[in-house]
Amino acid sequence: MIETAQAFGIDIGGSGIKGAPVDLINGKFADERLRIPTPEVSTPEAVADIVKQILDHYEVSDGTPVGIAFPAPVKRGKKLDWIANLDQSWIGVDLNAFVSEHVGRRVHVVNDADAAGLAEAQFGAAKDTKGLVIATTLGTGIGTALIMNGVLVPNTELGHIELEGKDAEKYAADSARSANELTWKKWGKRLTKYYSTMEKLFSPDVFVVGGGVSKKSEKFFEFINIQTPIVPAALLNDAGIVGAAYYASVQE
């Protein structure tokens, strides 16, 4: 593996599995990423085979920390009890133990939203922020990550708080904007309700907004009326890989 990398990150998604060596000094890829389509039948064995293929491609040494961003809550030492975007045969699998055994080396699995949040807190839009960072992704749903003074509070699902009698993501996610053909201003008012509720519950020091729509932040940020600073994500699609690599690097 390239010498400027201190860790390796892999991001497992419903359509693609991506990996790259990561320069943890600068929070960037140390080499071009490799993307392989997620198998149509995305069983644990099929997905782990691709993880191994990516690691072998880069000749990742045994001493290099390897982190994997995974699209489900990841509870250390416990088996997976819920999965949305991969085959249901993942339910009942101990992620860390299974993937580590299958690829023949230790890996550290972390929820994908948590990985992205860590990347933004360590290297991106919330770098050097003291206190509580709440990172959110606005897409089909609302993903969340809480990082307190650089320490992750894992597996939060704050896109599911209640707003206007609904699950928040059904009211304020980017998918709700599209489905209801909301103007940016009207969507901004819905986001104001979501983020102001989060303000009251958590008193964060900064919100980071990710997801594909964050590239258009200039269209709707002006309509979000809250007291807490709110900034667009900086690492975009690189965040999962970079955050997973960083997460692995700080595990014992």
From TrEMBL:
Record carries keyword Kinase: yes
Name of a matching Pfam family: ROK
Signal peptide: none
Classification via InterPro entries: ATPase_NBD, ROK
Key words, A-Z: Kinase, Transferase
One annotated GO molecular function: kinase activity
Keyword Transmembrane: no
Domain of life: Bacteria
UniProt family annotation: Belongs to the ROK (NagC/XylR) family.
PANTHER family linked: POLYPHOSPHATE GLUCOKINASE, ROK (REPRESSOR, ORF, KINASE) FAMILY
Protein name: Polyphosphate glucokinase
